[in-house]
Specification:
By secondary structure, this protein is mostly helical. Helix content is 75%, strand content 0%. It contains 5 helices and no strands. Helix 2 packs parallel to helix 5.
Length: 170
C-alpha cells in the first residue's frame, strides 16, 4: 500500500522536527560541556592568579543556550515534571483533557515568546548592547531563544496530534 502525498509530507515533517530537536539538544549539551571547561579553566586560573577574562559572560551566554536548546528536547521526550499527585488521580479522559488544555495554553505562550525574542534581538542589535564585562554583542542570543521557542510550538502541536506519545526517546 502506497502512502498518500499528505502522509509522506507529514512523515518527512516529523523526521525534520525530530532532527531539529536533536540538533538543538546537541548544541545545548555542547554548551554544558563548554561551561564545565570554562569554569574549570577559570577556577584553576584563579588559583594561579590568572582568572579567565570574561568567564562570567561566557558562562552566562552558555547557560542561556543550554536552557533554550534543552526545552524542545525535554518536551519532545515528555521529560517535564508533572504534578503527578493530581494528574494520576484523574481518569484517562480527564488526563487527556487536562493535558490538551495545558498544551493549548502553552502554544500561544511560546508563539508570543518567539515573536518577542525576535523583536528583542533586533532591539539589541540596534542599540549595540553587549555583555557586561567583555562587551560582546548578544543580539543573536534572543534569536537563538526564538528558534528554540518556535520548535517548542511544533513539538507541542505534535503532542496535541499524538496524545500520550513522545516525539523522541530519551
Amino acid at each position: 500500500m502506497q502512502a498518500t502525498p499528505v502522509g509522506r509530507f507529514y512523515d518527512r515533517y516529523v523526521m525534520v522536527l525530530r532532527r531539529a530537536v536533536g540538533a538543538l539538544a546537541v548544541v545545548a549539551g555542547m554548551a554544558v560541556a563548554a561551561m564545565i571547561v570554562v569554569t574549570c579553566v577559570d577556577v584553576v586560573g584563579r588559583r594561579f592568579g590568572r582568572p579567565l577574562k570574561g568567564a562570567y559572560d561566557i558562562v552566562e551566554i552558555l547557560g542561556a543556550i543550554t536552557i533554550a536548546g534543552g526545552l524542545p528536547y525535554t518536551t519532545g521526550c515528555k521529560g517535564h515534571v508533572a504534578i503527578e499527585f493530581f494528574f494520576q488521580r484523574l481518569s484517562r479522559p480527564g488526563r487527556i483533557i487536562v493535558d490538551t488544555f495545558v498544551r493549548m495554553i502553552t502554544i500561544p505562550m511560546f508563539s508570543f515568546l518567539t515573536w518577542r525574542f525576535v523583536h528583542y534581538g533586533f532591539e539589541l542589535k540596534a542599540s549595540g548592547q553587549g555583555t557586561s564585562t567583555m562587551g560582546w554583542p548578544i543580539f543573536w542570543l534572543p534569536w537563538w531563544m526564538a528558534l528554540c521557542c518556535g520548535v517548542m510550538v511544533l513539538v507541542i502541536l505534535y503532542h496535541l496530534m499524538h496524545p500520550g506519545k513522545e516525539l523522541t526517546k530519551p
